[in-house]
Amino acid sequence: MLKPGSTIGILGGGQLGRMIALSAAQLGLKTHILCPDADSPAFQVAAGHICAAYDDEAALAELARVSDVVTYEFENVPLATAQFLERHVPVRPGAKALAITQDRLLEKSFVRDLGIETAPFAPVDDFAGLEAAVASIGLPAVLKTRRFGYDGKGQVTLRPGDDLHAAWHAIGAQSAILEGFVTFEREVSVIAARCMDDAFAAYDVTENVHRDHILHTSTVPAAVSRQASDRAHAIACKIAGALSYVGVFAVELFITSAASGEQVIVNEIAPRVHNSGHWTQDGAVTSQFEQHVRAIAGWPLGDASRLGAVQMINLIGADAHDWAKILAEPGAHLHLYGKDEARAGRKMGHVNRLRLDGRVSPTSTC
Ligand code: AMP
Hints:
By secondary structure, the chain is of the alpha+beta class. The chain has eleven helices and 17 strands.
């Protein structure tokens, strides 16, 4: 169990690392960030930082030396980096969660083997493999690179009549999976945490809307049935236990409404705090960032109860120019990431619009 005054090392210096650092500071903990980008938003709010590549072993050794525990804000941390650090300092969540969630084929297989629904999928290693996968899965389908895909990058939707060669080259002719196309009613996510003594706490299910493959809004409560929300929580709990997970994570889910009834289907797991959990900063008793810090510090989890109805809207690119208008709005909480340049498609901040309803929803445990 970390004592106040201890240091958390964070791999990654983006907005997620920044918000973890802010929550750590609130709890009397220091943070030390390692990131190759000299302009990292997290550097502005941390006690210390190292500007170096993730595979720079001297820099990693220095991070391990100054840290009591190391965590990460993105799932594409090289596995060798996590393994190197693990020899010197506890890394939470550990390398197992990274190894599985970095690879869509391992991830989907892991989820399916737990008896949890996924879209039908097949591995694709070469062009002949793509033809075979299309024959077995059928079209429409989604072709996704096994690694390094995010915000819709590295994926192509295939419809009947589409040119398979073009799709294969569009994803860079690399190892991939083909997933059956899910005609979903809504996209939701569960943000949850597990700590070292196995305690588990999940936030209310969040409904997510994407624009141009980037998360646009997250809304709680989500318009889903009690059964779907219970199923989503049970799925998160099962995944956390199977990974012996420590920290906050997200499970992205599709909700379908087939004639046979509503289905909850896992799309992917993010082994980190998540954009669709930003509403918890103003709309839950404990934010996802504080929860993550508590879990990796070996502290008890906080209360994940929701305080009211919340809509989180990402401020992408020029949206952030509206900051003054948002500040004047009752019930709106503005969060800006300290980034200089409001480039198109860049996440500059978010706003949580909160309507307190005087009730708290109980924390879900398992
Ligand atoms: P991903 O990178 O896997 O999170 O996918 C990005 C987005 O593409 C998701 O949020 C969905 O909107 C869409 N998508 C991904 N996989 C599928 C699928 N199998 N069927 C339908 N839509 C999908």
